[in-house]
Amino acid sequence: MLPPQTVSPDSPEEFAAALRAASDQRRTIALFGRGTKHRMAGAVPAAEVNLSTARLTRVLQYEPRDLTLSVEAGIRFAEVDQLLGEHRQMLPLDPPFAGEATVGGVLASNTCGPRRRLYGTARDLTIGMKFATLEGKLIQSGGMVVKNVAGLDMAKLLIGSFGTLGAIVVANFKVLPRPQVERHFLLSFDLAADARAARDRVLRSVLQPQSLDLLNPAAAARMGKSGFLLSIQAGGNRAVVDRYQRELAALGPLSEVDPNWTARLREFTPAFLEEHPEGAVVRLCSTLETAPALLESPAPAVIRAGSGVAYLYFAEASAAAAVLSQPKAILEFSPTSRSFTAELWPSPGADFEIMQRVKRMLDPHHLLNRGRLFGRT
Question: C-alpha distances in angstroms, 356 versus 109, 289, 377?
């Protein structure tokens, strides 16, 4: 048996060749960037070949006037954000671990943050992709045109696949202008019902905030606040943001927080996991109507109140078992301990069979990132 091998190819072509070489020898393969989400979606057992995107860090094309960007998958998201910021532009995905996470890792895990409510997810902002297959091929999907409707959009398939179908090596994005003014407001309430009512009034109004989040008292305490919080991020010109302040003040006690609040809210999950090595994070996909009920949880709860996605945080992973019995619940981050054997994705849904068929087409021998996709690959 060949010894374990770690490879960091210098180009997408070399990456594809390395994939084929491992596949031809039927060697198991672990794909990774900077390893920021090793606790996410199931642990990958030790593989025979470790393939890293560490050297795929180039900006391939950036056209500020066209609002398009193409980069290799190993570049850090923070570097992309800095580059775009120099031109007053943005890629508003707000992924956690933003300081170290790679673009490829953000796409493979389909992570996003508070501004999903207005700007969508990676599938909405990705206009093209190049990925390597186990056959050693580089597949191009989409391009550098924002409105491209030609052909099958394979990029959508790779986003959120956790490296179980192929290796993302290049990604193309549509980027957006940054608002002239951005401010973050907080409304604090003693009762969950009042926080929910304020959220409903914002959703029914003409206001279109970038983000709209509900935090229960346990989550608020971690942010140095108290009560049930409604967190609103607003952007636009000065007149628009001033209108936000006037209309939000009519909903309850209003305060404005410093710019660090936005980053702290985005990094809520990494901060929690750093403090709780044996902890877990459950993600629930609820409706706008039912999501606020999770505010009553004794565990910290952060709810994307404009989309219905909710996150519950448990200092001990075993405490998450009861929540996982709910529909559309996933143990998104779990301990790395091999003694932890809970089902991470109890109810994958009726379309899981289709996902398995796609997996068999692209990886018939199940070599890629075994254990990922919540232990179901």
Answer: 18, 32, 8
Rg of the chain over CA atoms, in angstroms? 21
Q: Which residues of the chain have pLDDT under 50?
A: 149, 151
* pLDDT confidence of residue 338: 64
In this structure, is residue 342 part of a structural domain?
no
Q: What pLDDT is recorded for position 282?
A: 96
CB 39 within 8 A of CB 334: yes
Residues 221 and 132 both lie in one domain: no
Same domain, 283 and 223: yes
Predicted confidence at residue 258, as pLDDT, reads 86
| Structure letter (DSSP) for residue 261 | H
One domain for residues 236 and 279? yes
Strands 49-52 and 29-32, how do they pair?
Answer: parallel
pTM: 0.94
pLDDT the model gives residue 2: 66
280-285 vs 329-333, strand pairing mode:
antiparallel
Whether 183 contacts 256, CB under 8 Å: yes
Q: How far apart are CA 60 and CA 77, in angstroms?
A: 15
Asked whether residue 290 falls in the same domain as residue 351, the answer is: no
Per-residue pLDDT tens for 246-299? 999 999 999 989 889 999 999 999 999 999 999 999 999 988 888 889 999 999
**DSSP state at residue 350:** T
Closest CA to 46 of 16, 99, 1, 77: 1
Q: What is the pLDDT of residue 339?
A: 63
- Does 200 share its domain with 315? yes
The residue written with tokens 């999950």 in the block is: 269
- Domain of residue 313, residue span: 181-333
